[in-house]
Specification:
The protein is an all-alpha fold. It has seven helices and no strands. Helix 1 packs across helix 5 and helix 2 packs across helix 3 (54-79).
Amino acid sequence: MTTTALTLAGLALTLVILWANLRPWWTGSRDPKLLAPFGKGAAFGILGAMCAGGLLGWLAGCAPQVGSAAGGKAVTGVTGTQTGTPLTRGSLSGSLTEEGAVVVFLIAAAVVFAWRKASKDDKKRMIGGAYCGASLCATAGVAGALAFLPGLVNQAGQSARAAIESAGVL
């Protein structure tokens, strides 16, 4: 899978989407439940960034490309200055084990089920979260900060497998 680095303009668009979702919560009641749709989408995007291929990996790879193109048009349209400088690329992909892949699959399925039950506004928040999660994981800084996550997901899958195998269920 070829991926495109997120540009500075794409990062600006990502930050606008992040701000648009976090600001109402911050200025409102700060009820954590209000962040749940955005958080579910962000988890979906981050987990997709860990996938080396498949549908989730492809979607996560498209996020920086789409965001950079849209952000470039937006920044150029507002300022008249051409943009396109890529940021240093980071990656979480390629480090999932079989057990970790199953955990990602199960979480992705849970997010899809939540999507199907969500209201129209919550669906928009979930899309924004997925975009932000995948796009930010394409930067070296965020990918570096979340470098522990694939190992954590793999460990969760290995622990579940060990528990199931030792209980005689398999």
